[in-house]
Each structure stands twice: as structure tokens, then as C-alpha cells.
């Protein structure tokens, strides 16, 4: 959809006159897009923004049989996995979160390649916390192929986590 941008930054005229395209990074429906913008300024014709390409998806470096740390950048890619992904949303100051981390580190190797386990620090990755409506920690969410299958609140014992996972494996 075309839109106009009014710019009053330094050297705008010189850049515009040389035909340089200025870029702006924006967040569109949860995906990062780099958009080339021809600026509208007094005395210049109006132009519309034109996409110059999407940023590549952030790569998830899975820890086989371990617990992978995710961020706002790579979480969207991680949940698309065809292998179920159990994600623990946590914070550094949360005592039950630390206990759950130990449980997950013991649990992960038991599933081999049939389950991926990851953690997201919601203090450092607030966009992820907001996107997935995390209002208290710890909370785990199970995903497969981009679909949220289950929410598991609190520091659950390993037996309870296994029981929940068995419904989706």
C-alpha cells in the first residue's frame, strides 16, 4: 500500500537530488521488512514506498539433546519446526524458573530428536513475552509447525511434563 513520508532530516535534499534511495526498517505483522522509501519533501513529487526485500529469517542453532536459547529474532522461526518444540518462558530473578531449567536439562536428552527444548528470557526478549501473552513465569508452551499445542503454567514436575508431551508425540 503506497504511503508518503515527510522528512526533515539533514542532507535530505542532497541525497534526493543524487537519486539515492533511503531505507527504513520497520516491523510489519511480526516480520521484519526493509523498505526503500522515496521521501516526500516540499518541492519534490510524491512517491510511494517500495519493498526492497525481506530480512532473512534468524537461524535457530538447536542444541541436540540440550536446551537452546531463543531470542525475539529467532523464536518465530523456531516454532515453525515440524519437530515439537517445548519453550520455557522465564526470567533471571525467578526462583521456580531456575528449578524448571534443571528439569528441562534432564528431560531433553530423553527425547532425542523427537523433541526440541528451548528457553526465552522474557526480560531480555519482551516482544516474545508480549506476542505469546506471557503474564507470569515460568510458563512453557509446546509448538509444532507454527501452531501452539499446549500451555503449561508453573514449575511442573518432570512426570507431569512427560504426561502432557505424550499427548502430542
Q: Can you tell me about this structure?
A:
The chain is an alpha/beta fold and 169 residues long. The protein folds into two domains: 12-54, no CATH class; 67-166, Glutaredoxin, CATH 3.40.30. It has helices at residues 12-17, 75-78, 95-107, 126-131, 158-166, and strands at 22-28, 31-37, 50-54, 67-70, 85-90, 116-121, 139-144, 147-153. A five-stranded mixed β-sheet has the order 4-6-5-7-8. Mean pLDDT is 79; it is low at 1-41 and 47-52.
In short:
22% of the residues lie in helices and 28% in strands. The protein has 169 residues and is of the alpha/beta class. It has two domains: 12-54, no CATH class; 67-166, 3-Layer(aba) Sandwich (Glutaredoxin).
Strand content: 25-35%
Strand adjacency order, main sheet = 4-6-5-7-8
* CATH fold assignment of the largest domain: Glutaredoxin
| Structural class label | alpha/beta
CATH architecture identity of the largest domain: 3-Layer(aba) Sandwich
| Helix residue percentage | 10-25%
Counted beta strands = 8
How would you characterize the largest beta sheet?
A: 5 strands, mixed
Note the total helix count: 5
Distance between the termini: 42 Å
Q: Which shape, going by the Cα principal axes?
A: globular
SSE string: HEEEEHEHEHEEH
CATH superfamily (homologous) name of the largest domain? Glutaredoxin
**Number of domain modules:** 2
Cα gyration radius (Å): 22 Å
Q: What is the average per-residue confidence, as pLDDT, rounded to a whole number?
A: 79
